TrEMBL record:
It comes from the Bacteria. Residues 10-126, 168-283 form the VOC domain. Pfam families: Glyoxalase (PF00903). Transmembrane segments: none annotated. Gene3D superfamilies: 2,3-Dihydroxybiphenyl 1,2-Dioxygenase, domain 1. This is Glyoxalase.
Amino acid sequence: MHFHQKPNTIVTEVQLNVQDFSKMKDFYTTILGLKIINETPSTIAFTADGQQVLLTLVATPDFSPRPKRSAGMYHFALLLPERSDLANFTAHLHQAGYPFAAADHSVSEALYLTDPEGNEIEIYIDRVPEEWTWQDELVEMTIDPLNFNALAQQQTAAGWQGIPTKTIMGHLHLYVSDLEQTKDFYTKGLGFDIVSRYANQALFLATGQYHHHIAINTWMGVGAPKSQPNQLGMAFYTLKYPDITALNQAIEHLEALGHSVQKNETGATVTDPSGIRVQLVSA
């Protein structure tokens, strides 16, 4: 998981506005097996290792659902440490009777499921980088069927015991309104490299030659309505820079592009061209 260590820039946390606080808490503790690190009557923070917050839920019962064809989160992705963990999680979902989809992306093997309020989650493991195929500085990613028989052979006797301690936020995939405008924000502003493309509809962005830390697509339609702050779903995500110098450089680049950056005690916040809020911090 060196792709998620210094000197790389990584997504560390996602915050969700939720309507049914109790039902969502039950899903993330029972189905996903995340651990609660902090809880109040209206917020709950989840972790894998007891230190890094991966996901925060905020009770916002008066917020309206995000319109289906609009900008916002496609999915957040939790990266498991071992293939056996993915095998055990697959068996756990079967046993719980919880629906999911699956895919082999060449660089990774992944499961996809949706929480009770429609937020999509990817749970995945990476293949070793030596097995990835690069051509002209772009990594090859596919959407092939997952070999469940081969995966099942990796199950352990202990089975699924909840999210493993070494699980991290692997990447984030976003629906955006305009690919070109958003591309400049993430590359020229935030400092990511383009590492893969899907026609003229999606870009995969990373630092340190990962297959992607962030992906953006226009699958909700070019010109889709922007994300709004009073909607259910993702409120913002946190992007962590390796040091304060890298963070300040990103802030300078964003301001040079004409974006309004609000500095605060922990770093800064900025909104991308599709209305998606980003919290910028440094290690």
